[in-house]
Amino acid sequence: MKTISKKLSKEETEAFGAELEAIRTDVMAKIGQEDADHIRRVHRAYRYTEILGRGLIHFSFEPITFTVGTLLLAGSKILNNMEIGHNVMHGQYDWMNDPRFNSRTFEWDIVSDSKQWKFYHNYMHHTFTNVVGKDHDYGYHFTRLSEEQKWKPAHIFQSIANVFLAFNFQWGVGGHGYKVEYMEIPKKQRKKKSLKEYRDVFFKKAELQLVKDYLFFPLLAGLNFPKVFLGNFIANMIRNLWTYSIIFCGHFTENAETFTPEQIEGETKGEWYIRQLKGSSNLSGGNFFYLMTGHLSHQIEHHMYPDVPAKRYREIAPKLQELCEKYGQHYNTGGFIKQFASVWKRIFAYSFPDRIARKIMGTAEGIQLSAKPQITIVEAKSEELVSV
Asked: Where are the domains of the chain?
């Protein structure tokens, strides 16, 4: 069942936002050596697990070492994508002046081109979080998750389509990105003129990834080509399943709300903060779990503070929970199984027309939009809005 938060007055909303700004100011003042040491340790772990994983796959003579090597390689890819790539490309470590962790130059181990991803994720998604028709990450153009999205007969198959997406998530992310960039960048600002040119950027990156994992490393193994090919394939599949699960849990649980473009007009900073709260979901767990999620286990905190080093979200979370209790706002968190089951309930429910979806969701009128969603449009430098 959907959890209802207290409706805040304008004064309460702005007071809530001011307290959140104070938390941000306090945390940003602490950022320094501890955060630099953390990301460097994670980077070493990523490199060492990749080397060891590939070595074990390459030289394994029985299933156990092959399995261990594959799991290590999968873990390395997860660290690269989640705790390093996602957070670095949000600019969380630009202050270090270390080229390995610079948002403008970093490229990750995934078929999605980093510059295309930064446009549709950092700008479009974080500006228009859960705004139907503007946030292209909401449903990825084929999954219906709200009554605000018109039902079509093809949605009947979205549960099956999402199983396919889960196993091939990097391809969904990459193929999704170039289309958003082409659609949303004003024609006069485009450095690439046609959809084909945007698509070619994605294909070039995908080609590099395919050559690395399915040609270069397998060829190094000689007669063991099939074994290395298989190990890389399984490692990529594990990474895909993990990232799909974590990201969907952060955005599409039963209690994550949606908004319309009209509702965000004239939105204040306090309203923006509340929209991030209402449109996000967290996962509870331990420190290793948080690390392997890239701290997207704390999606609420990430949506509120996307440029704060993600490890700090664990420090912010208790303070935010206290504020939510103080202002009568629901803090959407739970264990992985509970939240992931909630995601699939929503995917299944909205594969049907609204009347059936409401019955499955257990509500009289489906999942409701906030009376007044919130966002202050994030200002971005013009060069950051165009793929370069």
From this structure: 10-384
